[in-house]
Target: Polysaccharide lyase 14 domain-containing protein
Amino acid sequence: MSDFHPDHSNIRTRRPARVSCHPLFDLALATSLLVALPGLASADDGGDKPKLTTPQVAPCSERYELVADPAPPPNPRDGKEAVRMGYGTNDDWGTRENVEVLSPQQAGLNETALRVHYPKGTSAPSDNGEGGAGFYATIDGLAEAESACLQYKVRFERGFDFVKGGKLPGLYGGVGPSGGEEVTGDSGFSVRFMWREEGQGELYEYVIKDADYGKSVGRGRWTFPTGEWVTIENEIILNDPDQKNGIARVWIDGHPVLEQQDIVYRTHDRIYVDGLMFSTFFGGHGEEWRTPRDQIADFADFRFFRP
Model:
């Protein structure tokens, strides 16, 4: 599989995301209960399958401090302006063509949301056309964070055709590798999410491992519905540079679904959790990954926490 990887030369100099101190929303209000399935990593993970368990601790948003809650402005000229103003980034692609802003009323939430379009026949930007969108947002509140928590909402349109799969946002550090780039431990990592066939969810990791592309972790431990908001929550605890002791945890609508240990995110202590890798498109690479029709998904309520 292949995905787009923009220039990261300004990764440390981006304008910071807006920071707010309003209270956390109650996860109990989330209405979309996803199906948690027993299972291990998929057969095409690459390298050794990780040992997966279920988190035995409260969601990280309840244990960490809120440090940023960026959101798009209500009346931008276009999607590019919305992303750049709302998330303080100049490192984006597909935002003018494929992103629009929903009002709180349209989103059914207390804040604006991003609607991303996937035009018919598109998949990975390096494959066929440019469907979806992406950007990197450095979050100042995560400066030199060795543990971090990302929480956001996603809503696939009703009847969404998942085809073979596609990318979803996650956390990154350093250069945020993707697109088949080698992860050596001294330049960075990324931990995104993916949807797969029939809406199966998974973590999609670029960490030190034996695989040509990202590592598929925990596929099928939950399933995305369509037509309703789902809250994703991901905690990352970086490893000590000389140890294999990194951790990733996932909660879906407040329900614990996945814990992975013994991860190697880095080999140098200068690598930290830096911010948001917003990345969404169909693919994979090749005709079998492409969306058969115009489709949309909505994203909102991005929140960042740290100990």
Notes: The two ends are 35 Å apart (CA to CA). Helices lie at 60-63, 79-87, 95-98, 104-107. Residues 79-87 form the longest helix (9 residues). Confidence is low (pLDDT under 50) at residues 1-47.
